[in-house]
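stuck on this fold:
=====
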Amino acid sequence: MDYILEFDIAAFILECLVIIFYYSRKNITIVQNKLYILIAHVVMLVTFLEFFTTFINIKQIAIARPLVAILHCIYLCGTTGLPLLFLFYCFSLVDFWNKKSEKFVLTFSHILLLPYLFCLIIIWLSPFFGKENPLAFYLDQNNMYVRGDFWFVMLYAASATYFVVTFCIFVLYRKLLSTEKKLIMLFYLVIIVTCVLVQFFIPKALVECFGMSISLLAFFFIVQRPDDNIDSHTKGFNQNAFVKLYSVGKSGKKKYTCVSLIIDDTVFIANTFGIHQMYNFLRAVSDFLVENFNYENVFRISQNCFIIVINNDEPGQIYEIIGKIQTRFKGNWNCDSIEIKLYKRICVIECPKDAVNPEEVIELVNLVTNDERYKQSVVFAKDIDIEYKRKTTYIEHALRSGFSHNRFDVFYQPIFSVEDNRLIGAEALVRLQDENGKYISPEDFIPISEKNGSILKIGEFVFESVCRTLSKLDLEEYGIKKIDINLSVAQCMQEILADHLLSVQNLFNIPSSVINLEITETAAAHTPDILLKNIKNLSEAGIELSLDDYGSGYSNMNYMLNMPFRMIKIDKYIVWSAFENERSKKALIATITMIKSLGMTVLAEGVETKNQADWLIEQGCDYLQGFYYSKPVEVSEFLTLMKKQKTL
C-alpha cells in the first residue's frame, strides 16, 4: 500500500483556513484562545513535517542524516504533545484551573507533564540507538524512517492516557457544558481516537493529522465562535468578551480599573433621528475609544455604556483617560451630516476593591445608569451605596419569584374594640418570604414594589385572599366584625378601583360591613379627584373607609372633611411620641378630641403596654391595635385568638 499523502494536503488546507479565520477576527486574550491557536500552529507544523518526511522517503531525496532525525523527533514531539494540549484546552472550557487551589493546580500539572517528559526522552534518544536496540524509531541505511516496537507503543500509551483524562473531565464536568460543547468534545474524542488507531495499524494511511484538522475546524465554529464576543454595531468587544476576559484567571487576583462611559441621550437620538443613526453615533464613540485606549481594553456592555479597562494601578493614568474623554465630549459629534452634542457620565470602578468580578462591575454601572442619585459627571464606585443596591436587587428578585412561587402570605394583626371590650377583627398585612423561607420586612419590600409597579398585584392578592378566607368562615362564630385592608397609592390612582374591589367582594359574597379599606394620607394627596370618586362609590356600597397613619404624612384636614372616612387611624409614631414628651401628648389629646367632634371613630396604632392602652381609652379612642394585644399572626392563629375571645 502506498502512502496516502492526500489526507495531509487536505489537512494542511483546513489548518490554513482555521488560522486565517482566527486572525481575521478580534480575539480576547484568554487561556482558551491562546491554547486553541497554539494547537492550530502545532497541528500545522506536524502536518507539514509528516508530509515532508514522507515525501522525501517516497522520492528518496538525499538529506543529511542528522537533519532527517531531527525532523522526525520534532514530528513525534508534536503528535505526542497534541493530546496534552487538547486536554489543557478542555480544562479551559470547564474553567478547571480556577476551581482548584494553586497548590493543586501546580501538583496536578506536573503529574500530567510526566508522561510527556518521558516521551520526549524516548524520542530524542532514539537517533542514538540503531536497529538492534530501537527506541521510538530508527533510520535505516537509506535514511528511511522505521518505527520502533515497544517504546513506540509507549508513545501511543502516553497519548491514550491524556485521552482518558479528557474523557474523565468530560464526564465529571458535563453539567457545566452546553449541549453543543458536549457534542463537540465527544466528536473530538471519537474522531481523534479513530484516526490514531487507523494510522497505528495502517501506517501509510496518514489520517491522524486530518482528524486533528477536522476537530480544529469544528471547535472554531462551535466552541470558539469569536463573533460571540464582538458587538455587531460597533465591531468592538461586547459584554460577553468583558465577562470572559476578566472572569478567567483574573477575577479577584489582578488589580485593574474600569472607567465606564455612559451616554445619556441614546433614547433621544433614536427617537429623533432613528435607531440606525443612534448606532452610527455609538460606532463613532467606540472608534474614538479604540483609537485612544487600544481595542483590547474597550468593551460595549449595554446600549449606552462602554468600559475602558486599565490593567495597572496608576491613578494618574485614570485621570488622564477621564481628561481625554471629557475633552472630546466638549465638542460635537458628526455622523451623516447630523451634528449633535452627546452628554455623558463616567464611573470609575477599582477591582477587586469595588467589584470582585465582571458581573459586579456591570451591576455597579447599571446602578449609576439608572439611579437619579448618580447624575454627576464623574462617579467613583467607592461613593456608591453598594449595599443598598444589593439589598434592592435581592428584594426585587424576591418580589418577582414571590408571585411565581406563591411566597406571599397574609397575616392578621388583631384590633381591640373598647366598646365590646374584646378583639373584633384585624388588619390584613402582606408578608413576603425569600427563597430560604425568611420573611422580608414590609418596610423594605413595599416601597420597592411601589416603584416597580408590583404593588398593584400585591394589593389584589391581599384583597382576594382576605375575601376568600372570610367566605369560608362563620363570622358570627368567631366574632369577626371587620377586617381592615390597606390600599396603596398605585391602587388609588386607578379609576376602576371601586369596580374591581366590589366585583371581588360580590364574587365571594362578603358583607360590605365587614370590610374596612385603609387609605393613607399620601394616597389622598396624590390622587384626590380619582380617589374621591372611588371612595364615594365604595362608601355607597356599604364599605367602611379609614384614613390610615394619620399624622405621618401631609396631615391635611381637608381629607377628613371632604372624604367619607368613618375612622381615623393615628400613626404609631405619634402614639409613642405622646408617651415621651408632654407637648406630643397634648397634641395627641387635641387630635383625638377633634376627630371625635367630627363624628368619626379613632384607632390608635402601636399600643405596646397596658399603661398606654388605659390612657388611650381614657382619651376616647374607640379601637386599639398593637403588640400589647397581639403581633401580626397567621390566619390559623388569628382565628384561635378570636374564638378564645368569643367564649370569654
In short: The mean pLDDT is 85.
